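Reviewer 2 asked us to include a model.

Predict the structure of this chain.
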Amino acid sequence: MVVFLSLNEDVGDWHWWGNKLEQYDAAPRDLRNIEERRKLRTEFRKEFIKQFTNPHRHGEGGYLFDPQLQRWQSMRAQHWYYFKPTPKTLWVPAIAVFLCAAYGHLLAVRHEKREKSYRQGLVSYKDREWKFI
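Predicted model (structure tokens):
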């Protein structure tokens, strides 16, 4: 797979519908934040391309080590060791288990009622549900 990346590529300077600063529904502060994030993305993109295309980089493997990504993955792998039970973390699963049990009980009651009517002969064979199973 060939990757065509340009160091001078600056996505976001031009839009086909006009100037990006003509956003009438955004406050000037929001436009400045959008512009700052765009500049940061451009800088990160240039740094990634610089490191990715460096023929003299050290280390093994075909990937770039990203410390922030490693920190996030480590946090996701270890978060149960730092789990602290709170009322919300206890009640939400309890409610889910209760709802599943109540639904199962409802299905069992319906099944028993239907089977009782079948055994007593109140429902003819041709009108029964699930007669082939």
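Helices lie at 28-52, 67-78, 87-119. Residues 1-5 have pLDDT under 50 and may be disordered. We have added this to the supplementary material.
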